[in-house]
Specification:
This protein is of the alpha/beta class. It has 17 helices and 17 strands. Helix 9 packs parallel to helix 11 (287-312). The structure holds calcium ion.
Length: 560
Protein backbone atom coordinates (compact mmCIF):
# COMPACT_ATOMS: atom_id res chain seq x y z
CA UNK A 1 0.00 0.00 0.00
CA UNK A 2 2.82 2.33 0.87
CA UNK A 3 4.28 1.93 -2.60
CA UNK A 4 0.92 2.58 -4.19
CA UNK A 5 0.80 5.83 -2.29
CA UNK A 6 4.28 6.58 -3.51
CA UNK A 7 3.05 5.93 -7.02
CA UNK A 8 0.31 8.48 -6.53
CA UNK A 9 2.89 10.91 -5.23
CA UNK A 10 4.87 10.30 -8.42
CA UNK A 11 1.86 11.36 -10.43
CA UNK A 12 1.35 14.39 -8.26
CA UNK A 13 4.99 15.31 -8.63
CA UNK A 14 5.12 15.02 -12.40
CA UNK A 15 4.41 18.70 -12.76
CA UNK A 16 7.20 19.65 -10.40
CA UNK A 17 9.80 17.20 -11.62
CA UNK A 18 12.02 20.06 -12.68
CA UNK A 19 11.81 21.47 -9.19
CA UNK A 20 12.95 18.11 -7.87
CA UNK A 21 15.97 18.36 -10.09
CA UNK A 22 17.02 21.37 -8.10
CA UNK A 23 16.92 19.48 -4.80
CA UNK A 24 20.23 17.74 -5.21
CA UNK A 25 21.75 18.67 -1.90
CA UNK A 26 18.51 18.05 -0.03
CA UNK A 27 18.24 14.53 -1.40
CA UNK A 28 21.78 13.81 -0.41
CA UNK A 29 21.24 15.07 3.13
CA UNK A 30 18.03 13.19 3.72
CA UNK A 31 19.58 9.77 3.88
CA UNK A 32 20.23 8.19 0.55
CA UNK A 33 17.88 6.12 -1.52
CA UNK A 34 14.18 6.33 -0.75
CA UNK A 35 11.20 4.76 -2.54
CA UNK A 36 11.05 8.02 -4.52
CA UNK A 37 14.71 7.73 -5.39
CA UNK A 38 15.64 4.05 -5.42
CA UNK A 39 19.16 3.03 -6.25
CA UNK A 40 19.41 1.61 -9.76
CA UNK A 41 21.97 -0.95 -10.89
CA UNK A 42 22.06 -1.51 -14.64
CA UNK A 43 24.00 -4.74 -15.13
CA UNK A 44 24.90 -4.62 -18.80
CA UNK A 45 26.66 -7.51 -20.52
CA UNK A 46 28.42 -7.29 -23.87
CA UNK A 47 27.57 -9.60 -26.78
CA UNK A 48 25.57 -12.00 -24.63
CA UNK A 49 23.04 -13.99 -26.61
CA UNK A 50 19.47 -14.74 -25.57
CA UNK A 51 20.38 -18.34 -24.80
CA UNK A 52 23.81 -17.78 -23.23
CA UNK A 53 22.44 -18.51 -19.75
CA UNK A 54 20.89 -21.28 -17.72
CA UNK A 55 17.76 -19.12 -17.44
CA UNK A 56 15.33 -20.21 -20.17
CA UNK A 57 14.03 -17.27 -22.20
CA UNK A 58 12.39 -19.62 -24.70
CA UNK A 59 9.30 -21.71 -24.02
CA UNK A 60 11.50 -24.67 -23.25
CA UNK A 61 14.92 -25.27 -21.76
CA UNK A 62 17.44 -25.47 -24.60
CA UNK A 63 20.75 -27.29 -24.81
CA UNK A 64 22.58 -24.02 -24.20
CA UNK A 65 20.46 -23.40 -21.08
CA UNK A 66 21.67 -26.78 -19.87
CA UNK A 67 25.28 -26.05 -20.80
CA UNK A 68 25.74 -22.71 -19.04
CA UNK A 69 25.65 -21.95 -15.31
CA UNK A 70 24.20 -18.61 -14.30
CA UNK A 71 22.72 -19.23 -10.84
CA UNK A 72 22.61 -15.55 -9.94
CA UNK A 73 20.66 -14.68 -13.07
CA UNK A 74 18.28 -17.45 -12.02
CA UNK A 75 18.01 -15.87 -8.57
CA UNK A 76 17.32 -12.48 -10.13
CA UNK A 77 14.62 -14.04 -12.33
CA UNK A 78 13.00 -15.58 -9.24
CA UNK A 79 13.03 -12.22 -7.50
CA UNK A 80 11.75 -10.23 -10.45
CA UNK A 81 10.41 -10.16 -14.00
CA UNK A 82 11.83 -11.93 -17.04
CA UNK A 83 11.22 -10.38 -20.45
CA UNK A 84 11.25 -12.98 -23.19
CA UNK A 85 11.14 -10.50 -26.07
CA UNK A 86 13.62 -7.77 -25.18
CA UNK A 87 15.55 -6.21 -28.03
CA UNK A 88 18.68 -4.19 -28.62
CA UNK A 89 20.53 -3.06 -31.73
CA UNK A 90 22.62 -5.74 -33.41
CA UNK A 91 25.98 -4.14 -32.48
CA UNK A 92 27.53 -2.29 -29.53
CA UNK A 93 27.66 1.49 -30.07
CA UNK A 94 24.13 1.92 -31.49
CA UNK A 95 22.68 0.15 -28.44
CA UNK A 96 24.79 2.12 -25.99
CA UNK A 97 23.96 5.49 -27.49
CA UNK A 98 20.26 4.54 -27.53
CA UNK A 99 20.23 3.78 -23.84
CA UNK A 100 22.08 7.01 -23.07
CA UNK A 101 19.75 9.19 -25.18
CA UNK A 102 16.48 7.28 -25.54
CA UNK A 103 16.76 7.68 -29.31
CA UNK A 104 16.41 4.97 -31.90
CA UNK A 105 19.61 4.32 -33.84
CA UNK A 106 17.98 5.65 -37.02
CA UNK A 107 17.61 9.00 -35.27
CA UNK A 108 20.95 9.26 -33.40
CA UNK A 109 22.78 7.93 -36.46
CA UNK A 110 25.51 6.14 -34.54
CA UNK A 111 24.59 3.12 -36.59
CA UNK A 112 27.80 1.12 -36.44
CA UNK A 113 30.53 0.64 -33.86
CA UNK A 114 32.96 3.45 -33.17
CA UNK A 115 36.64 3.67 -32.27
CA UNK A 116 38.93 6.14 -34.04
CA UNK A 117 37.93 9.70 -34.81
CA UNK A 118 36.60 10.15 -38.34
CA UNK A 119 37.30 6.52 -39.23
CA UNK A 120 34.48 4.21 -40.21
CA UNK A 121 34.91 0.49 -39.51
CA UNK A 122 32.62 -0.34 -42.43
CA UNK A 123 34.03 -2.84 -44.87
CA UNK A 124 33.76 -2.45 -48.61
CA UNK A 125 30.40 -3.26 -50.14
CA UNK A 126 30.44 -3.58 -53.93
CA UNK A 127 26.91 -2.23 -54.37
CA UNK A 128 26.22 0.44 -51.75
CA UNK A 129 28.19 2.74 -49.53
CA UNK A 130 27.06 3.99 -46.12
CA UNK A 131 25.60 7.45 -45.57
CA UNK A 132 27.47 9.98 -43.44
CA UNK A 133 26.66 8.32 -40.16
CA UNK A 134 27.81 9.62 -36.78
CA UNK A 135 31.11 7.83 -36.82
CA UNK A 136 32.37 9.83 -33.79
CA UNK A 137 29.51 8.69 -31.58
CA UNK A 138 27.91 10.58 -28.69
CA UNK A 139 29.35 13.96 -27.72
CA UNK A 140 28.62 16.60 -25.06
CA UNK A 141 29.93 19.17 -27.54
CA UNK A 142 27.77 19.64 -30.65
CA UNK A 143 30.66 21.22 -32.54
CA UNK A 144 32.41 17.85 -32.85
CA UNK A 145 31.60 16.67 -36.38
CA UNK A 146 29.66 13.50 -36.99
CA UNK A 147 28.36 13.14 -33.45
CA UNK A 148 24.99 13.23 -31.75
CA UNK A 149 24.51 15.51 -28.76
CA UNK A 150 21.79 14.93 -26.20
CA UNK A 151 21.05 15.25 -22.52
CA UNK A 152 22.14 11.84 -21.29
CA UNK A 153 20.46 9.50 -18.84
CA UNK A 154 23.23 9.77 -16.20
CA UNK A 155 23.36 13.55 -16.52
CA UNK A 156 19.64 13.77 -15.74
CA UNK A 157 20.00 11.41 -12.81
CA UNK A 158 22.98 13.35 -11.56
CA UNK A 159 21.01 16.58 -11.63
CA UNK A 160 18.32 14.85 -9.60
CA UNK A 161 20.79 13.99 -6.87
CA UNK A 162 22.00 10.57 -7.89
CA UNK A 163 25.64 9.58 -7.63
CA UNK A 164 26.32 8.27 -11.13
CA UNK A 165 28.91 5.54 -11.38
CA UNK A 166 30.34 4.12 -14.58
CA UNK A 167 32.24 0.85 -14.27
CA UNK A 168 33.48 -1.08 -17.31
CA UNK A 169 32.92 -0.59 -21.00
CA UNK A 170 31.80 2.82 -22.29
CA UNK A 171 32.14 2.79 -26.09
CA UNK A 172 30.05 5.95 -26.45
CA UNK A 173 32.38 8.21 -28.42
CA UNK A 174 35.42 7.98 -30.67
CA UNK A 175 38.97 8.27 -29.41
CA UNK A 176 40.13 11.87 -29.33
CA UNK A 177 36.61 13.26 -28.86
CA UNK A 178 35.06 14.37 -25.55
CA UNK A 179 32.48 11.59 -25.79
CA UNK A 180 35.11 8.93 -25.16
CA UNK A 181 35.21 9.99 -21.48
CA UNK A 182 32.12 9.00 -19.44
CA UNK A 183 32.84 11.87 -17.01
CA UNK A 184 31.89 14.22 -19.86
CA UNK A 185 28.58 12.46 -20.34
CA UNK A 186 27.04 12.76 -16.88
CA UNK A 187 28.94 10.23 -14.79
CA UNK A 188 30.53 11.27 -11.48
CA UNK A 189 32.85 8.28 -11.48
CA UNK A 190 34.50 6.37 -14.31
CA UNK A 191 36.39 3.15 -13.80
CA UNK A 192 37.53 1.37 -16.92
CA UNK A 193 35.53 3.18 -19.59
CA UNK A 194 36.90 4.83 -22.74
CA UNK A 195 36.54 4.77 -26.51
CA UNK A 196 37.33 1.13 -27.13
CA UNK A 197 34.64 -1.52 -27.31
CA UNK A 198 36.76 -4.38 -25.99
CA UNK A 199 39.73 -5.07 -23.73
CA UNK A 200 43.24 -5.80 -24.94
CA UNK A 201 43.15 -8.72 -22.53
CA UNK A 202 40.98 -9.94 -19.66
CA UNK A 203 44.04 -10.88 -17.65
CA UNK A 204 45.67 -8.78 -14.95
CA UNK A 205 49.00 -10.43 -15.70
CA UNK A 206 48.79 -8.75 -19.10
CA UNK A 207 47.70 -5.43 -17.59
CA UNK A 208 44.42 -5.85 -19.50
CA UNK A 209 46.39 -4.74 -22.56
CA UNK A 210 47.02 -6.13 -26.04
CA UNK A 211 50.64 -5.10 -25.75
CA UNK A 212 51.74 -8.62 -24.73
CA UNK A 213 50.65 -10.06 -28.09
CA UNK A 214 51.00 -6.95 -30.23
CA UNK A 215 53.85 -4.83 -28.83
CA UNK A 216 53.08 -1.13 -28.84
CA UNK A 217 49.33 -1.60 -29.26
CA UNK A 218 47.68 0.29 -26.41
CA UNK A 219 44.39 1.37 -27.90
CA UNK A 220 42.55 -1.42 -26.05
CA UNK A 221 44.22 -0.78 -22.65
CA UNK A 222 41.62 -0.53 -19.88
CA UNK A 223 42.10 2.76 -18.00
CA UNK A 224 42.04 3.07 -14.23
CA UNK A 225 42.94 -0.46 -13.19
CA UNK A 226 46.70 -0.11 -12.66
CA UNK A 227 46.42 -1.48 -9.12
CA UNK A 228 45.53 -4.90 -10.61
CA UNK A 229 48.34 -5.00 -13.16
CA UNK A 230 50.54 -8.03 -12.75
CA UNK A 231 48.00 -9.84 -10.59
CA UNK A 232 46.32 -13.11 -11.46
CA UNK A 233 42.90 -11.59 -11.67
CA UNK A 234 40.25 -11.60 -14.38
CA UNK A 235 38.94 -8.26 -15.68
CA UNK A 236 35.35 -9.13 -14.72
CA UNK A 237 36.44 -9.65 -11.11
CA UNK A 238 38.57 -6.48 -10.98
CA UNK A 239 35.68 -4.37 -12.25
CA UNK A 240 33.31 -6.00 -9.75
CA UNK A 241 35.60 -5.22 -6.80
CA UNK A 242 35.75 -1.59 -7.91
CA UNK A 243 31.97 -1.46 -8.28
CA UNK A 244 31.46 -2.82 -4.76
CA UNK A 245 33.71 -0.09 -3.36
CA UNK A 246 31.69 2.57 -5.14
CA UNK A 247 28.40 1.12 -3.88
CA UNK A 248 29.80 1.23 -0.34
CA UNK A 249 30.88 4.86 -0.75
CA UNK A 250 27.44 5.83 -1.99
CA UNK A 251 25.73 4.14 0.94
CA UNK A 252 28.19 5.73 3.40
CA UNK A 253 27.47 9.18 2.01
CA UNK A 254 23.74 8.45 2.01
CA UNK A 255 23.31 9.37 -1.61
CA UNK A 256 21.14 7.38 -4.03
CA UNK A 257 23.24 5.89 -6.79
CA UNK A 258 22.96 4.83 -10.39
CA UNK A 259 25.53 2.13 -11.09
CA UNK A 260 26.14 1.46 -14.76
CA UNK A 261 27.89 -1.90 -14.38
CA UNK A 262 28.93 -2.39 -17.95
CA UNK A 263 31.00 -5.53 -18.29
CA UNK A 264 33.46 -6.07 -21.10
CA UNK A 265 32.58 -9.76 -20.81
CA UNK A 266 31.63 -11.74 -22.80
CA UNK A 267 33.05 -9.83 -25.76
CA UNK A 268 36.19 -10.91 -27.61
CA UNK A 269 39.05 -11.57 -27.04
CA UNK A 270 37.86 -14.79 -25.50
CA UNK A 271 40.19 -15.86 -22.72
CA UNK A 272 39.75 -18.49 -20.04
CA UNK A 273 38.32 -17.42 -16.74
CA UNK A 274 40.36 -20.02 -14.90
CA UNK A 275 37.99 -20.08 -11.93
CA UNK A 276 35.41 -21.94 -13.98
CA UNK A 277 37.00 -23.33 -17.11
CA UNK A 278 37.93 -26.78 -15.78
CA UNK A 279 34.33 -27.52 -14.90
CA UNK A 280 33.19 -27.15 -18.50
CA UNK A 281 36.06 -29.21 -19.85
CA UNK A 282 34.93 -31.93 -17.43
CA UNK A 283 31.44 -31.55 -18.89
CA UNK A 284 32.87 -32.55 -22.25
CA UNK A 285 32.92 -29.15 -23.93
CA UNK A 286 35.68 -28.20 -26.34
CA UNK A 287 38.31 -25.72 -25.18
CA UNK A 288 36.64 -22.90 -27.08
CA UNK A 289 33.21 -23.74 -25.72
CA UNK A 290 34.60 -24.04 -22.19
CA UNK A 291 36.33 -20.67 -22.48
CA UNK A 292 33.10 -18.97 -23.45
CA UNK A 293 31.11 -20.77 -20.75
CA UNK A 294 33.70 -19.75 -18.14
CA UNK A 295 33.38 -16.10 -19.13
CA UNK A 296 29.60 -16.32 -18.79
CA UNK A 297 29.85 -17.82 -15.32
CA UNK A 298 32.42 -15.22 -14.27
CA UNK A 299 29.98 -12.52 -15.34
CA UNK A 300 27.21 -14.22 -13.38
CA UNK A 301 29.44 -14.37 -10.29
CA UNK A 302 29.81 -10.60 -10.55
CA UNK A 303 26.04 -10.23 -10.49
CA UNK A 304 25.88 -12.42 -7.41
CA UNK A 305 28.60 -10.43 -5.66
CA UNK A 306 26.73 -7.18 -6.26
CA UNK A 307 23.42 -8.65 -5.06
CA UNK A 308 25.08 -10.00 -1.92
CA UNK A 309 26.84 -6.69 -1.26
CA UNK A 310 23.55 -4.80 -1.49
CA UNK A 311 22.07 -7.23 1.04
CA UNK A 312 25.01 -6.82 3.41
CA UNK A 313 24.75 -3.04 3.26
CA UNK A 314 21.02 -3.23 3.96
CA UNK A 315 20.00 -1.45 0.76
CA UNK A 316 18.81 -4.40 -1.36
CA UNK A 317 15.16 -3.62 -0.68
CA UNK A 318 15.57 -0.16 -2.12
CA UNK A 319 17.70 -1.04 -5.10
CA UNK A 320 16.41 -1.88 -8.57
CA UNK A 321 18.56 -4.28 -10.60
CA UNK A 322 18.17 -4.49 -14.36
CA UNK A 323 20.09 -7.10 -16.33
CA UNK A 324 20.48 -6.78 -20.10
CA UNK A 325 22.81 -7.44 -23.03
CA UNK A 326 23.69 -5.00 -25.82
CA UNK A 327 23.28 -7.32 -28.83
CA UNK A 328 23.06 -10.97 -29.80
CA UNK A 329 25.67 -13.69 -29.77
CA UNK A 330 28.84 -13.41 -31.85
CA UNK A 331 28.87 -15.55 -34.96
CA UNK A 332 31.94 -17.43 -33.76
CA UNK A 333 30.02 -18.64 -30.72
CA UNK A 334 27.27 -21.27 -30.56
CA UNK A 335 24.16 -20.17 -32.40
CA UNK A 336 21.31 -19.28 -30.07
CA UNK A 337 18.82 -21.77 -31.46
CA UNK A 338 15.95 -21.66 -32.09
CA UNK A 339 16.89 -18.13 -33.15
CA UNK A 340 18.41 -17.46 -36.55
CA UNK A 341 21.44 -15.24 -37.03
CA UNK A 342 23.99 -13.62 -34.77
CA UNK A 343 25.44 -10.26 -33.73
CA UNK A 344 25.11 -7.67 -36.54
CA UNK A 345 22.37 -9.58 -38.34
CA UNK A 346 18.73 -8.45 -38.63
CA UNK A 347 17.39 -11.83 -37.50
CA UNK A 348 16.34 -12.52 -33.92
CA UNK A 349 19.74 -13.96 -33.01
CA UNK A 350 21.27 -10.55 -33.63
CA UNK A 351 18.82 -8.41 -31.71
CA UNK A 352 16.92 -10.44 -29.10
CA UNK A 353 18.63 -10.28 -25.70
CA UNK A 354 18.07 -11.34 -22.10
CA UNK A 355 16.35 -8.81 -19.81
CA UNK A 356 15.60 -9.26 -16.12
CA UNK A 357 14.25 -6.65 -13.70
CA UNK A 358 14.16 -6.84 -9.92
CA UNK A 359 12.28 -4.00 -8.23
CA UNK A 360 11.49 -4.91 -4.64
CA UNK A 361 7.93 -4.10 -3.64
CA UNK A 362 6.89 -3.18 -7.18
CA UNK A 363 7.71 -6.08 -9.50
CA UNK A 364 6.06 -9.35 -8.49
CA UNK A 365 8.65 -12.09 -8.02
CA UNK A 366 9.02 -14.84 -10.60
CA UNK A 367 6.95 -13.14 -13.26
CA UNK A 368 7.34 -13.42 -17.04
CA UNK A 369 6.47 -10.76 -19.58
CA UNK A 370 6.14 -11.74 -23.24
CA UNK A 371 5.56 -8.23 -24.60
CA UNK A 372 8.39 -6.73 -26.54
CA UNK A 373 10.58 -3.85 -25.36
CA UNK A 374 13.69 -2.29 -26.92
CA UNK A 375 16.86 -0.77 -25.58
CA UNK A 376 15.87 2.88 -26.05
CA UNK A 377 13.03 2.15 -23.60
CA UNK A 378 15.61 1.97 -20.80
CA UNK A 379 16.03 5.77 -20.84
CA UNK A 380 12.43 6.77 -20.01
CA UNK A 381 11.96 3.70 -17.81
CA UNK A 382 14.87 4.56 -15.52
CA UNK A 383 13.77 8.19 -15.34
CA UNK A 384 10.29 7.11 -14.32
CA UNK A 385 11.74 4.71 -11.77
CA UNK A 386 13.63 7.68 -10.32
CA UNK A 387 10.54 9.87 -10.29
CA UNK A 388 11.78 12.03 -13.16
CA UNK A 389 9.12 11.71 -15.80
CA UNK A 390 9.77 15.13 -17.24
CA UNK A 391 13.18 15.52 -18.66
CA UNK A 392 14.95 17.95 -20.93
CA UNK A 393 15.33 15.60 -23.85
CA UNK A 394 13.77 15.98 -27.24
CA UNK A 395 13.14 13.21 -29.72
CA UNK A 396 12.97 10.32 -27.28
CA UNK A 397 11.81 7.26 -29.18
CA UNK A 398 11.83 4.91 -26.20
CA UNK A 399 8.71 4.20 -24.16
CA UNK A 400 8.75 3.61 -20.43
CA UNK A 401 7.83 0.04 -19.53
CA UNK A 402 7.23 0.75 -15.85
CA UNK A 403 3.55 -0.16 -16.34
CA UNK A 404 4.61 -3.59 -17.58
CA UNK A 405 6.75 -3.97 -14.48
CA UNK A 406 3.65 -3.25 -12.42
CA UNK A 407 1.82 -6.06 -14.17
CA UNK A 408 -0.22 -4.08 -16.66
CA UNK A 409 -0.41 -5.01 -20.31
CA UNK A 410 -0.18 -2.48 -23.12
CA UNK A 411 -3.53 -1.55 -24.63
CA UNK A 412 -2.14 -1.44 -28.15
CA UNK A 413 1.03 -2.59 -29.77
CA UNK A 414 3.62 -0.19 -31.08
CA UNK A 415 6.02 -0.72 -33.94
CA UNK A 416 9.74 -1.24 -33.36
CA UNK A 417 12.42 -0.10 -35.80
CA UNK A 418 16.00 -1.15 -36.47
CA UNK A 419 18.18 0.63 -39.00
CA UNK A 420 21.67 -0.42 -40.06
CA UNK A 421 22.78 1.37 -43.26
CA UNK A 422 26.30 0.00 -42.81
CA UNK A 423 28.29 -3.02 -43.90
CA UNK A 424 30.31 -4.98 -41.37
CA UNK A 425 30.04 -8.75 -41.74
CA UNK A 426 26.44 -8.11 -42.67
CA UNK A 427 25.05 -6.01 -45.51
CA UNK A 428 22.79 -3.04 -44.65
CA UNK A 429 19.15 -3.40 -43.64
CA UNK A 430 16.13 -1.94 -41.91
CA UNK A 431 13.68 -3.94 -39.83
CA UNK A 432 10.21 -3.20 -38.51
CA UNK A 433 8.19 -5.29 -36.12
CA UNK A 434 4.53 -4.85 -35.25
CA UNK A 435 2.77 -7.52 -33.26
CA UNK A 436 3.89 -10.87 -34.58
CA UNK A 437 4.92 -9.51 -37.97
CA UNK A 438 8.49 -8.63 -38.84
CA UNK A 439 9.65 -7.16 -42.14
CA UNK A 440 13.32 -7.09 -43.09
CA UNK A 441 14.38 -4.79 -45.91
CA UNK A 442 17.79 -5.63 -47.35
CA UNK A 443 19.19 -2.40 -48.77
CA UNK A 444 21.76 -3.96 -51.05
CA UNK A 445 19.32 -5.79 -53.32
CA UNK A 446 16.14 -4.04 -52.14
CA UNK A 447 14.73 -7.40 -51.14
CA UNK A 448 12.12 -7.88 -48.45
CA UNK A 449 11.44 -10.77 -46.13
CA UNK A 450 8.33 -11.11 -44.00
CA UNK A 451 8.13 -13.37 -40.99
CA UNK A 452 5.48 -14.19 -38.44
CA UNK A 453 7.63 -14.25 -35.31
CA UNK A 454 4.85 -15.60 -33.09
CA UNK A 455 4.56 -18.72 -35.25
CA UNK A 456 8.08 -18.90 -36.68
CA UNK A 457 10.61 -17.67 -34.13
CA UNK A 458 13.44 -19.17 -36.20
CA UNK A 459 12.51 -17.04 -39.25
CA UNK A 460 12.55 -20.07 -41.51
CA UNK A 461 9.68 -19.13 -43.84
CA UNK A 462 9.62 -15.89 -45.79
CA UNK A 463 5.97 -14.95 -46.30
CA UNK A 464 6.52 -11.81 -48.37
CA UNK A 465 5.20 -13.42 -51.55
CA UNK A 466 2.33 -15.14 -49.78
CA UNK A 467 1.18 -12.22 -47.66
CA UNK A 468 1.58 -9.43 -50.18
CA UNK A 469 -0.92 -7.09 -48.56
CA UNK A 470 0.77 -7.49 -45.17
CA UNK A 471 4.16 -6.97 -46.79
CA UNK A 472 3.00 -3.71 -48.34
CA UNK A 473 1.43 -2.58 -45.07
CA UNK A 474 4.67 -3.27 -43.19
CA UNK A 475 6.74 -1.61 -45.95
CA UNK A 476 4.60 1.52 -45.62
CA UNK A 477 4.98 1.45 -41.86
CA UNK A 478 8.76 1.06 -42.15
CA UNK A 479 8.90 3.98 -44.57
CA UNK A 480 6.93 6.16 -42.19
CA UNK A 481 9.20 5.27 -39.26
CA UNK A 482 12.35 5.86 -41.31
CA UNK A 483 11.07 9.28 -42.38
CA UNK A 484 9.92 10.15 -38.85
CA UNK A 485 13.37 9.40 -37.47
CA UNK A 486 15.12 11.13 -40.40
CA UNK A 487 16.94 7.90 -41.16
CA UNK A 488 19.80 7.98 -43.64
CA UNK A 489 19.83 5.37 -46.38
CA UNK A 490 22.97 3.99 -48.05
CA UNK A 491 24.02 5.31 -51.44
CA UNK A 492 23.83 3.14 -54.55
CA UNK A 493 27.28 3.34 -56.10
CA UNK A 494 26.08 2.77 -59.67
CA UNK A 495 23.73 5.75 -59.62
CA UNK A 496 24.83 7.94 -56.70
CA UNK A 497 21.25 7.89 -55.46
CA UNK A 498 20.13 6.81 -52.03
CA UNK A 499 18.54 3.42 -51.57
CA UNK A 500 14.78 3.98 -51.88
CA UNK A 501 12.50 3.62 -48.89
CA UNK A 502 10.57 0.36 -49.20
CA UNK A 503 7.28 2.01 -50.14
CA UNK A 504 9.09 3.90 -52.91
CA UNK A 505 10.00 0.70 -54.71
CA UNK A 506 8.48 0.98 -58.16
CA UNK A 507 8.84 -0.73 -61.46
CA UNK A 508 11.68 1.59 -62.38
CA UNK A 509 13.61 0.72 -59.25
CA UNK A 510 13.09 -2.97 -59.90
CA UNK A 511 14.74 -2.43 -63.28
CA UNK A 512 17.96 -1.74 -61.42
CA UNK A 513 17.76 -4.77 -59.21
CA UNK A 514 19.66 -7.16 -61.44
CA UNK A 515 22.46 -4.61 -61.58
CA UNK A 516 22.34 -4.12 -57.84
CA UNK A 517 22.47 -7.82 -57.18
CA UNK A 518 25.41 -8.34 -59.49
CA UNK A 519 27.45 -5.51 -58.03
CA UNK A 520 28.67 -2.28 -59.52
CA UNK A 521 31.18 -2.86 -62.30
CA UNK A 522 31.66 0.86 -62.81
CA UNK A 523 33.31 1.29 -59.41
CA UNK A 524 36.01 -1.21 -58.51
CA UNK A 525 36.45 -2.38 -54.94
CA UNK A 526 38.91 -0.06 -53.27
CA UNK A 527 39.53 -0.41 -49.56
CA UNK A 528 40.85 3.14 -49.38
CA UNK A 529 37.74 4.71 -50.88
CA UNK A 530 36.56 7.91 -49.31
CA UNK A 531 33.00 9.01 -49.15
CA UNK A 532 31.34 12.34 -48.65
CA UNK A 533 32.41 15.67 -50.04
CA UNK A 534 36.05 16.64 -50.21
CA UNK A 535 35.65 18.58 -46.99
CA UNK A 536 34.23 15.67 -45.04
CA UNK A 537 36.04 12.56 -46.11
CA UNK A 538 36.32 9.36 -44.12
CA UNK A 539 38.60 6.54 -45.01
CA UNK A 540 36.66 3.32 -45.31
CA UNK A 541 37.65 -0.25 -45.01
CA UNK A 542 39.55 -0.35 -41.73
CA UNK A 543 39.25 -3.79 -40.28
CA UNK A 544 40.08 -5.14 -36.88
CA UNK A 545 43.23 -7.16 -36.23
CA UNK A 546 43.16 -10.94 -36.28
CA UNK A 547 44.60 -12.50 -33.18
CA UNK A 548 46.68 -15.65 -33.24
CA UNK A 549 46.49 -18.31 -30.60
CA UNK A 550 50.21 -18.54 -29.99
CA UNK A 551 50.38 -18.19 -26.26
CA UNK A 552 48.22 -20.91 -24.84
CA UNK A 553 45.29 -18.60 -24.38
CA UNK A 554 42.21 -18.99 -26.42
CA UNK A 555 42.18 -16.04 -28.78
CA UNK A 556 40.01 -15.53 -31.82
CA UNK A 557 39.10 -12.79 -34.20
CA UNK A 558 38.68 -9.52 -32.42
CA UNK A 559 35.50 -8.06 -33.80
CA UNK A 560 33.72 -5.26 -32.09
CA1 LIG B 1 28.21 -5.69 -28.00
Amino acid sequence: MKLKLVGLLFCFCVGVAEAKIGLTSTIAREGGATPDFPNIVFFFVDDMGWQDTSVPFYTEKTSLNQRYHTPNMALLARQGMKFTQAYASAVCSPSRVSLMTGMNAARHRVTNWTLNKDVSPDIENPVVEPPKWNVNGLSPDPSVPYTVTAKTLPSLMKEAGYRTIHVGKAHFGAKGTPGEEPLNLGFDINIGGHAAGGPGSYLGIHKFSADWRDPGNHIWDIPGLASYHGQEIYLTEALTREALKEISKSVETEQPFYLYMSHYAIHAPWENDERYCHKYIAQGLSEDEATYASMIEGMDKSLGDIMEHLEQLGVADNTIIVFMSDNGVHKQMPQNKPLRGHKLSPYEGGIRVPLLVKWPGVVSPQTVNDEYVIIEDIFPTFLEMAGLRKYAQKSVDGKSFVHKLKGKTSSRQRPLLWHYPNTYYNPPYSVVRLGGWKLIYHHQDQRMELFNINKDIGETTDLSKVEEAKTKEMADLMTKLLKDTKAQMPIIKATGERVPFPSELTLSSYVHQSLLRSGSPSKPVDRQLFWGSSSSRYPLGQTMPILNASTGFNQKNLTR
